[in-house]
Design brief:
alpha/beta, Rossmann fold, N-(1-d-carboxylethyl)-l-norvaline Dehydrogenase, domain 2, 2 domains, 5-stranded mixed sheet, two-stranded parallel ribbon, 12% strand, globular
Length: 281
Protein backbone atom coordinates (compact mmCIF):
# COMPACT_ATOMS: atom_id res chain seq x y z
CA UNK A 1 0.00 0.00 0.00
CA UNK A 2 2.82 2.40 0.86
CA UNK A 3 4.60 1.70 -2.43
CA UNK A 4 1.41 2.31 -4.38
CA UNK A 5 0.75 5.60 -2.58
CA UNK A 6 4.29 6.68 -3.43
CA UNK A 7 3.63 5.80 -7.09
CA UNK A 8 0.50 7.98 -6.94
CA UNK A 9 2.60 10.91 -5.66
CA UNK A 10 0.88 10.82 -2.27
CA UNK A 11 3.58 11.56 0.31
CA UNK A 12 4.43 8.77 2.73
CA UNK A 13 6.29 10.32 5.67
CA UNK A 14 6.86 7.32 7.97
CA UNK A 15 6.35 3.56 8.24
CA UNK A 16 6.68 1.05 11.05
CA UNK A 17 6.20 -2.66 11.52
CA UNK A 18 6.81 -5.30 14.17
CA UNK A 19 9.67 -6.44 11.93
CA UNK A 20 11.89 -3.37 12.16
CA UNK A 21 14.21 -4.66 9.41
CA UNK A 22 11.36 -4.76 6.93
CA UNK A 23 10.06 -1.31 7.84
CA UNK A 24 13.59 0.15 7.76
CA UNK A 25 14.18 -1.33 4.31
CA UNK A 26 10.85 0.02 3.08
CA UNK A 27 11.50 3.44 4.57
CA UNK A 28 14.85 3.57 2.79
CA UNK A 29 13.16 2.61 -0.49
CA UNK A 30 10.42 5.23 -0.08
CA UNK A 31 12.69 7.93 1.30
CA UNK A 32 10.68 8.31 4.52
CA UNK A 33 11.20 7.93 8.26
CA UNK A 34 11.76 4.40 9.66
CA UNK A 35 9.71 4.81 12.84
CA UNK A 36 10.44 2.55 15.80
CA UNK A 37 6.98 2.94 17.33
CA UNK A 38 3.43 3.76 16.22
CA UNK A 39 3.71 6.98 18.24
CA UNK A 40 6.53 8.19 15.99
CA UNK A 41 4.37 7.62 12.91
CA UNK A 42 1.46 9.58 14.38
CA UNK A 43 3.81 12.39 15.39
CA UNK A 44 4.82 12.86 11.75
CA UNK A 45 1.67 12.03 9.76
CA UNK A 46 -1.74 13.69 9.68
CA UNK A 47 -3.38 10.54 8.26
CA UNK A 48 -2.25 7.16 9.60
CA UNK A 49 -3.13 3.87 7.89
CA UNK A 50 -3.11 0.84 10.18
CA UNK A 51 -3.13 -2.84 9.19
CA UNK A 52 -2.73 -5.28 12.07
CA UNK A 53 -3.36 -8.98 12.62
CA UNK A 54 -6.13 -9.16 15.23
CA UNK A 55 -8.13 -7.49 18.01
CA UNK A 56 -5.28 -7.69 20.51
CA UNK A 57 -2.84 -6.01 18.16
CA UNK A 58 -5.34 -3.22 17.45
CA UNK A 59 -5.90 -2.57 21.15
CA UNK A 60 -2.13 -2.55 21.64
CA UNK A 61 -1.40 0.13 19.04
CA UNK A 62 -4.22 2.31 20.44
CA UNK A 63 -3.46 1.62 24.10
CA UNK A 64 -4.19 4.58 26.42
CA UNK A 65 -1.50 3.33 28.84
CA UNK A 66 1.36 2.95 26.36
CA UNK A 67 3.25 6.12 25.37
CA UNK A 68 4.51 4.26 22.28
CA UNK A 69 0.97 3.83 20.93
CA UNK A 70 -0.83 6.06 18.45
CA UNK A 71 -3.04 7.74 21.04
CA UNK A 72 -0.53 10.28 22.47
CA UNK A 73 -0.49 11.98 19.05
CA UNK A 74 -4.12 11.38 18.08
CA UNK A 75 -5.18 15.02 18.31
CA UNK A 76 -5.85 16.39 14.84
CA UNK A 77 -5.04 13.03 13.22
CA UNK A 78 -7.24 10.70 11.21
CA UNK A 79 -6.70 6.95 11.48
CA UNK A 80 -7.69 4.78 8.53
CA UNK A 81 -7.98 1.28 9.99
CA UNK A 82 -7.89 -1.54 7.44
CA UNK A 83 -7.62 -4.72 9.52
CA UNK A 84 -10.32 -7.38 9.81
CA UNK A 85 -11.39 -7.09 13.45
CA UNK A 86 -14.38 -7.66 15.70
CA UNK A 87 -16.82 -4.79 15.04
CA UNK A 88 -16.76 -3.80 18.72
CA UNK A 89 -13.01 -3.15 18.55
CA UNK A 90 -13.47 -0.59 15.78
CA UNK A 91 -16.07 1.10 17.97
CA UNK A 92 -13.72 1.06 20.99
CA UNK A 93 -10.91 2.59 18.97
CA UNK A 94 -13.17 5.30 17.56
CA UNK A 95 -14.20 6.32 21.08
CA UNK A 96 -10.60 6.43 22.32
CA UNK A 97 -9.40 8.48 19.35
CA UNK A 98 -12.27 10.93 19.51
CA UNK A 99 -11.67 11.48 23.22
CA UNK A 100 -8.07 12.33 22.29
CA UNK A 101 -9.18 14.80 19.62
CA UNK A 102 -8.78 12.66 16.50
CA UNK A 103 -11.01 10.81 14.03
CA UNK A 104 -11.16 7.29 12.59
CA UNK A 105 -12.57 5.41 9.63
CA UNK A 106 -12.65 1.66 9.14
CA UNK A 107 -11.70 0.59 5.62
CA UNK A 108 -11.89 -3.19 5.53
CA UNK A 109 -10.14 -4.80 2.56
CA UNK A 110 -11.58 -7.66 0.50
CA UNK A 111 -8.34 -8.13 -1.41
CA UNK A 112 -4.78 -9.32 -0.97
CA UNK A 113 -1.13 -8.34 -1.47
CA UNK A 114 -1.15 -7.93 -5.30
CA UNK A 115 -4.22 -5.70 -5.15
CA UNK A 116 -2.66 -3.55 -2.41
CA UNK A 117 0.44 -3.05 -4.56
CA UNK A 118 -1.57 -2.31 -7.71
CA UNK A 119 -4.08 0.00 -6.01
CA UNK A 120 -7.01 -2.28 -6.89
CA UNK A 121 -8.29 -3.00 -3.37
CA UNK A 122 -12.00 -3.45 -2.62
CA UNK A 123 -12.69 -1.26 0.41
CA UNK A 124 -15.72 -1.43 2.69
CA UNK A 125 -15.83 1.65 4.90
CA UNK A 126 -17.60 2.41 8.16
CA UNK A 127 -17.63 5.48 10.35
CA UNK A 128 -18.80 9.06 10.25
CA UNK A 129 -19.95 9.99 6.77
CA UNK A 130 -18.10 13.30 6.79
CA UNK A 131 -14.81 11.50 7.51
CA UNK A 132 -15.47 9.10 4.64
CA UNK A 133 -16.21 11.99 2.27
CA UNK A 134 -13.03 13.78 3.32
CA UNK A 135 -10.87 10.68 2.83
CA UNK A 136 -12.52 9.54 -0.39
CA UNK A 137 -9.73 10.81 -2.71
CA UNK A 138 -7.17 8.79 -0.71
CA UNK A 139 -9.44 5.74 -0.62
CA UNK A 140 -9.99 5.92 -4.37
CA UNK A 141 -6.24 6.14 -4.95
CA UNK A 142 -5.86 2.81 -3.14
CA UNK A 143 -8.75 0.91 -4.71
CA UNK A 144 -11.02 0.18 -7.63
CA UNK A 145 -14.15 -0.04 -5.44
CA UNK A 146 -14.98 2.01 -2.34
CA UNK A 147 -18.26 1.40 -0.53
CA UNK A 148 -19.62 3.34 2.42
CA UNK A 149 -21.45 0.74 4.53
CA UNK A 150 -22.62 2.76 7.53
CA UNK A 151 -21.57 3.69 11.07
CA UNK A 152 -18.42 2.35 12.68
CA UNK A 153 -18.54 -1.43 13.04
CA UNK A 154 -20.84 -2.07 10.09
CA UNK A 155 -18.00 -2.52 7.60
CA UNK A 156 -16.34 -5.02 9.95
CA UNK A 157 -19.56 -7.04 10.01
CA UNK A 158 -19.70 -7.13 6.21
CA UNK A 159 -16.03 -8.09 5.98
CA UNK A 160 -16.51 -10.90 8.50
CA UNK A 161 -19.31 -12.32 6.37
CA UNK A 162 -17.26 -11.98 3.18
CA UNK A 163 -14.45 -13.98 4.73
CA UNK A 164 -16.78 -16.49 6.35
CA UNK A 165 -18.33 -17.35 2.98
CA UNK A 166 -14.92 -17.32 1.26
CA UNK A 167 -13.52 -19.70 3.87
CA UNK A 168 -16.51 -22.04 3.51
CA UNK A 169 -15.98 -22.06 -0.26
CA UNK A 170 -12.29 -22.79 0.23
CA UNK A 171 -12.94 -25.69 2.59
CA UNK A 172 -15.59 -27.11 0.24
CA UNK A 173 -13.24 -26.92 -2.73
CA UNK A 174 -10.53 -28.69 -0.73
CA UNK A 175 -12.96 -31.51 0.00
CA UNK A 176 -14.04 -31.76 -3.63
CA UNK A 177 -10.48 -31.94 -4.91
CA UNK A 178 -9.44 -34.27 -2.10
CA UNK A 179 -12.25 -36.68 -2.91
CA UNK A 180 -11.46 -36.40 -6.62
CA UNK A 181 -7.85 -37.35 -5.95
CA UNK A 182 -8.93 -40.32 -3.81
CA UNK A 183 -11.18 -41.50 -6.65
CA UNK A 184 -8.30 -41.36 -9.11
CA UNK A 185 -9.67 -38.45 -11.15
CA UNK A 186 -7.45 -36.09 -13.11
CA UNK A 187 -7.57 -32.96 -10.96
CA UNK A 188 -6.73 -30.57 -13.80
CA UNK A 189 -9.73 -31.95 -15.68
CA UNK A 190 -11.86 -31.79 -12.53
CA UNK A 191 -10.97 -28.14 -11.92
CA UNK A 192 -11.93 -27.32 -15.50
CA UNK A 193 -15.29 -29.06 -15.09
CA UNK A 194 -15.85 -27.22 -11.81
CA UNK A 195 -15.14 -23.91 -13.57
CA UNK A 196 -17.81 -24.63 -16.20
CA UNK A 197 -20.56 -25.80 -13.85
CA UNK A 198 -22.29 -24.91 -10.60
CA UNK A 199 -19.13 -25.78 -8.67
CA UNK A 200 -17.42 -22.65 -9.98
CA UNK A 201 -16.29 -19.98 -7.53
CA UNK A 202 -13.75 -17.21 -7.14
CA UNK A 203 -11.86 -19.50 -4.77
CA UNK A 204 -11.52 -22.10 -7.52
CA UNK A 205 -9.73 -19.46 -9.58
CA UNK A 206 -7.39 -18.33 -6.80
CA UNK A 207 -6.80 -21.56 -4.84
CA UNK A 208 -7.66 -24.58 -6.99
CA UNK A 209 -4.31 -25.07 -8.69
CA UNK A 210 -2.47 -24.26 -5.45
CA UNK A 211 -4.37 -27.04 -3.69
CA UNK A 212 -3.54 -29.48 -6.44
CA UNK A 213 0.15 -28.53 -6.55
CA UNK A 214 0.51 -28.05 -2.75
CA UNK A 215 1.68 -24.48 -3.41
CA UNK A 216 0.66 -22.69 -0.21
CA UNK A 217 2.77 -19.53 -0.30
CA UNK A 218 0.92 -17.16 1.99
CA UNK A 219 -1.34 -14.45 0.62
CA UNK A 220 -4.03 -14.92 3.29
CA UNK A 221 -2.98 -17.21 6.11
CA UNK A 222 -4.87 -20.15 7.55
CA UNK A 223 -4.48 -18.50 10.96
CA UNK A 224 -6.22 -15.37 9.69
CA UNK A 225 -8.94 -17.51 8.10
CA UNK A 226 -9.54 -19.10 11.51
CA UNK A 227 -9.58 -15.69 13.17
CA UNK A 228 -12.05 -14.21 10.69
CA UNK A 229 -14.39 -17.20 10.70
CA UNK A 230 -14.28 -16.97 14.49
CA UNK A 231 -15.41 -13.34 14.32
CA UNK A 232 -18.33 -14.33 12.09
CA UNK A 233 -19.31 -17.19 14.41
CA UNK A 234 -19.30 -14.83 17.39
CA UNK A 235 -21.62 -12.49 15.48
CA UNK A 236 -23.94 -15.43 14.70
CA UNK A 237 -24.03 -16.40 18.38
CA UNK A 238 -24.85 -12.82 19.33
CA UNK A 239 -28.08 -13.00 17.30
CA UNK A 240 -28.91 -16.60 18.17
CA UNK A 241 -28.12 -18.21 14.81
CA UNK A 242 -26.58 -21.65 14.23
CA UNK A 243 -24.32 -21.83 11.18
CA UNK A 244 -23.20 -25.47 10.83
CA UNK A 245 -21.20 -25.01 7.62
CA UNK A 246 -19.32 -22.03 9.00
CA UNK A 247 -18.71 -23.93 12.25
CA UNK A 248 -17.26 -26.91 10.37
CA UNK A 249 -15.03 -24.61 8.34
CA UNK A 250 -13.78 -22.87 11.47
CA UNK A 251 -12.94 -26.28 12.96
CA UNK A 252 -10.88 -27.17 9.89
CA UNK A 253 -8.85 -23.97 10.02
CA UNK A 254 -8.31 -24.33 13.75
CA UNK A 255 -6.98 -27.84 13.07
CA UNK A 256 -4.49 -26.38 10.60
CA UNK A 257 -3.29 -23.94 13.23
CA UNK A 258 -3.04 -26.72 15.83
CA UNK A 259 -0.78 -28.85 13.60
CA UNK A 260 1.54 -25.93 12.93
CA UNK A 261 0.32 -24.93 9.47
CA UNK A 262 -1.37 -21.67 10.42
CA UNK A 263 1.29 -19.63 8.61
CA UNK A 264 0.50 -21.26 5.27
CA UNK A 265 -2.05 -19.83 2.86
CA UNK A 266 -5.71 -20.67 3.45
CA UNK A 267 -5.45 -23.05 0.47
CA UNK A 268 -3.51 -25.35 2.85
CA UNK A 269 -6.87 -26.57 4.17
CA UNK A 270 -6.45 -29.10 1.34
CA UNK A 271 -3.67 -30.68 3.40
CA UNK A 272 -6.46 -32.03 5.62
CA UNK A 273 -8.61 -33.44 2.79
CA UNK A 274 -6.15 -35.31 0.54
CA UNK A 275 -5.64 -38.89 1.80
CA UNK A 276 -1.87 -38.93 1.27
CA UNK A 277 -1.15 -35.59 2.97
CA UNK A 278 -2.19 -35.88 6.60
CA UNK A 279 -3.05 -38.85 8.83
CA UNK A 280 -6.42 -37.33 9.81
CA UNK A 281 -7.55 -36.71 6.23
Amino acid sequence: MARHLRDQHIPVVAVTDLDRTKSADLARELGCEPADTPAQVAALATTVITVVSDDGAMRHIFSPEDPRSLLPHAKGRTFLNCATLSPSVHTEVEALVEQAGGTTLEACMASSIPQARQGTLYLMCGGRREIFDRLKPLLEAMSTTVRYVGPTGQAAKVKALVNMVMNCNTAALAEGLGLGAALGLDLTMLREVFSQTGANSRVLETDGEDMQQRAHDCYFSAAHAAKDSGIAMALAESVGLRLPLAAATLAQYRRLVEIGKGGLDKSAVAELTFKDRHPSA
